[in-house]
Structure formats: C-alpha cells, structure tokens
C-alpha cells in the first residue's frame, strides 16, 4: 500500500473515532426510571415534548443530543418513594389520637405530571417527602375530625379512600401519583381504643374459658367412658374366662362320670320311650272317646244351641217388630192428637176473635146509642129547663103586675091536686058517721072544697107578707120601722 493512502486511511479512522467519542459525550440517554429535562437552545421546537407553554423538553426512555453551553440536561427520578406519616388528630368525639400511615408515591409517567414535578422538585427532589407529609397530614386531620374512633378503627379502607380522594387534586398539581396509602396504626392517649376492646377481649376470654371447661368436661367424660369400657371389657373377659373354666370343669367332671352317666342315660332313654308309648296309648284312647262320645255329644249340643239361638233370635225379632209397631202407632196417635189439638186451638182462637169482634162492635153500638140517648135527654132537659125558666120569668113578670090573678090561675091549675090532698084526710077513715044527715054531708064536702079558698087566702097573705117584708127591709135600710098587719085565717073546729 502506498504511504500516502495509508495516512489518509488512518486520518479517516481517527476522525471517525473522534466523532464517535464526541457524539458519545454529547448524547444523553434517559434511564427507564428517570426523565431528562432539557432546557436551553431549541428545546421548545418539538410540540410533542412540550405539552404546555414552559420552554423545556422532556425525554423518557431514549436519548437526545445535548449541546454543551447551549443546552442543560437534568434528570428527574421516576422511582417510587415512600413517606411515613405520624399525625396527631382530634376525632369527632374530641379524643386525641395519633395516626401512623405510609404513602407510596412517584412522579407520574405522562409528560404533564413530569413537567409539574420538574417545575416543583427538580432542584430539591429530596424534599418530596416533607411536602407529601405536610399535604397528607392536613387531609388526615381534616378527615379524622369528622369521624369517630370506631369509624377510624373499623373503616380504614373508607378513611384511606377519603384521604386519597381529597389529596388527588393537589397530587395532580404536584405531578405525583399515589401507588399506595396504608393506615398502619391508630393510637390514643386516653386508652379509649383499649377500653373498646376490653369487652370483646373479656367475652373472648370467657368463651375461651367456657370452651376450655367444656373440652375438659368432654375429656373427663371420655376418660370415664374409656375407663367404664375398660372395666366392662375386663368383666366380660373374666366372665368368659369363668365360663370357659366352668365348661372345662364340667367337661372334666363329665369325663370322670361318663360311665355312670352313660348308664343313667340309657335308663333315661328307656323311661322316655316307655313314657312316649304310654302317652301314645292315652292319646289313642282319648281320640277314640272323642270320636265315639264327645264328638256326637258336641254335635247334639251344637244342634240344641243353634236351635235355641234361632228361637231366641226369632223372639227378639218379633218383640222388636212389636215394639216398633207400637212406637209407630204411638207416634201416629200423638201426631193425630197434636193435629186435632192444633185444629181445636185454631178454632177456639178464631171463635174468640169473632166473639171479641162482636162484643167490641156491640159495645161500640151500645155506647153510641147511650151517647145519643144521653145527648137527647140532655137536650130535652135543657129545653125543659129553658121552658121552665121562661115560664118562671113570665110568671115573675105576671106576679109583678097582677099577683092575685097569677095566684088564682095557679090555684085553678092545681085545684084538683089541692082537693085531692084535702080528701086524703078522709082516706084513713074506716067508718064515717054523719049525725045530721044530708046537711052534715053537705057541710063536710063544703069544708073540703073550702080548702082551696083557704089556700087562696093563705097565698094572698103570703104574697102580702112578702111585699111588707120587702117594704120593711127597704124602710129599715132607710131608718123607718112599720108595723106589719098579719091576717090569720080561722081554723075550722075539730067538731
């Protein structure tokens, strides 16, 4: 190879090496757990790497050329970080508690989250934990203040979810995402949580003691049953051993007495056979008696009993038929009597109703007649009274005008009664003796007839006396007294 060509080749290779080394020094590659934040000349020219108006470029998972002096490349860790929280809170019940938790977080993988995290933590990535602690401490205090200790203990998932939800907006603004949030422990200084668990612990302890006692009782019972079964087994074994020993002794005794027993057995067999023969003969005699005597007698008795039963059944049937017939007749008679009585009662009732109606009609008619008669009599009496009153009024008027004419008229009208009253003096005389004959009779009749004139004179005297009394009373009232002359009629002599 010529010397000039060799020098050219070496220069080209050296240039390539220098270019590669220089490119290696200027080429920055982002690791999988980090993001390159490129700022400086030309970093805002790529829209995909600049999601907002900030002028820097984000590179993740690849490399980029960084021009020294014109551009600056810094790395933002995308690793997971953990922050321990210990927050003192006051619950809804006013009880102070200490909540211990751990937050696992990281920078989000999208450009927006990386950009937000780069703006806030690029130069102080170690301060993320303090920021997270302050952020979650505030949210924990706020949420725990609205819950009770029971809610904090029994609903830790709800508490975790509430904290994650309330802090999601702030975490998004910081460009961070929460991988995990765990409430590790809740402590209270007043012992409230410990006291809450005491009843359950006491109940669990009591249940444990009860279970232990029950298991101990069951174990004791099992031991006693095992001991009883063991004793029963021992007893059965000893009984079986005694039985076996008895059988052995019996066999041994039998073996020792086999000779006498064989002889006795032979005699017993003979006696048994003789007894059997006697029983057969007795049975034969019995069967013969049964066939010759007892069976005919039983047949005769059966016939007699059957006939007697048939006659008795016939009598019972006749008696039942007669009783039934009598019962039917009595029922028919009772029905007939009842029907007749009901008919008689209906007839009596109808007659009574008719008589009552007739009596009522008669009474009403008589009452009407009596009422009409009474009214007629009352009218007649009233008319008579009116006529008499009219007559009295007329007579009084006449008396006032001409008393003598009125008295004379009254005497004339009642003259027969007056003469009759005067003649009654002679009605009680049985024998009348007239001494002077026709003159005596004339005188006697003249006396009787003179009664009317005497009455007339008496009436006149009375009328005058009444007039005088009226005048006297009038004078007395006026202060004057008059003598009233009295005219007396001569009384006829008794002779």
UniProtKB/TrEMBL annotation:
It is found in: Membrane. One of its GO terms (molecular function) is protease binding. Residues 468-481 have a biased composition (Polar residues). One of its GO terms (cellular component) is plasma membrane. InterPro entries: Band_7, Band_7/SPFH_dom_sf, Flotillin_C, Flotillin_fam. SUPFAM superfamilies: Band 7/SPFH domain. The chain crosses the membrane at residues 6-27. Residues 222-231 have a biased composition (Low complexity). Residues 364-474 form the Flotillin C-terminal domain. The keyword Nucleotide-binding does not apply. Residues 307-334 form a coiled coil. Residues 215-234, 240-267, 344-364, 468-495 are annotated as: Disordered. It holds the Pfam family Band_7. This is Flotillin family protein.
